[in-house]
Amino acid sequence: MALLAGTADGVYRTEGRDVASASQVLDAGRVLRVRRFDDRDGVFAATKSGLYRSRDGGDSWADLGVPREEVYSVLGAAGRLYAGTHPAHLYVSADDGESWRELDAFQDLPSRDTWHTPRHRDEAHVRSLGAHPDAPDRVVAGVEVGGVHVSDDRGQTWEERRNGVHDDVHHVLVTGPDRWVASCGGGLYETGDGGETWTRLDADLDRTYFREAFAHDGVLYAAAARSSPGTWRGPSGANAALYERRGGDLTQVDYPGAPEEVVLAWTVRDGRVVAATNDGSVVERGDDGWRELGRLPSAVGSLASV
Predict the structure, then answer these.
(1) CA-to-CA distance for 164 and 242, rounded, in angstroms?
(2) Own/partner pairs for 101-105, CB < 8 Å, 24+ apart?
(3) CA 13, CA 2: separation in Å to the nearest integer?
(4) Does pTM top 0.85 for this prediction?
């Protein structure tokens, strides 16, 4: 099974477990998400130069023509394709990416005027989109910086779910119709009631910058750094950690590259969890812990198995 890695300079593909022989298959600048969906063919790459799709495992790609160039997130659910952009707008396609229309109600949320930060050109972006197979009409959006928001009618109307969760949302992992885990610049949060209330999972930890959580076979995986990426190269370094939750609290585990390298991306390949870091290291969870498979030539922000 091949591995597609969305990196700081495009998409790379590795064949099998041979990470060292990875080749660039899409030159699209920074890639935010590489994703596959059960209800449609192919793999999607959300990048700063557009939303691309490959139907042949990454050999060739087509630009799907989202109205805004910088696409930060993508979702396929209930026969529709969604794209979240920078600035923070949402688009939907009912014809598999042939045409797009904006979900205007997303702009009418009460907190919309507060979605901005100096480090992102005084704007925000839709960094995460998710849905659960048991509730495919429910779309969960995470905005950096702007919080979590939900639609129960495929994006036609929206409600805020930002109370009790940090507003710097990098990713929302949808593990059930009402159960989500939000990875934020100020903590890791979980809800079991569709965002009505949130519980902080990292209250007893000394790292607060989370980029993305992942779940497989009942285990929750999460990684954190001391602070935001601008500090990772400084004298104190990233001071990163990797955590696993197996029915109880988050437990810190060892991994290759710690504490300098931060795990940013996850997938499952051949039944094993695979992760990648800001320095391009690809690591795999074995029965006796994590081991390095090899390195890619650029920072990895997203992974998908094909």
Answers:
(1) 24
(2) 102/67, 103/151, 103/155, 103/156, 105/151, 105/155, 105/156, 105/157, 105/158
(3) 7
(4) yes
The tens-digit pLDDT sequence of the chain (306 residues) is: 899 999 999 999 998 888 988 999 999 999 999 999 998 999 999 999 999 999 999 999 999 999 999 999 999 999 999 999 999 999 999 999 999 999 999 999 999 999 998 988 999 999 999 999 999 999 999 999 999 999 999 999 999 999 999 999 999 999 999 999 999 999 999 999 999 999 999 999 999 999 999 999 999 999 999 999 999 987 778 999 999 999 899 999 999 999 999 999 999 999 999 999 999 999 999 999 999 999 999 999 999 999
Query: CA 168, 174, 175, 177 torsion: positive or negative?
Result: positive
Distance in angstroms (rounded) separating the CA atoms of residues 277 and 258: 10
Task: Give which of 281, 272, 260 is closest to 219, Cα–Cα.
Answer: 272
For residue 129, give Cα distances in angstroms to 3, 149, 150. 22, 10, 10
Q: How many other CB atoms are found less than 10 A from the CB of residue 40?
A: 17
CA-closest candidate to residue 306, choices 74, 57, 19: 57
* Cα-based distances in Å from 43 to 55, 145, 162, 178: 7, 27, 30, 26
**Class for the domain spanning 3-305:** mainly beta
Residue owning tokens 């109307």: 157
Neighbours of 254 (CB within 10 A): 9
Return the structure tokens found at 151: 């639609």
Closest C-alpha to 210, from 186, 174, 237: 186
Place of tokens 């990797």: 242
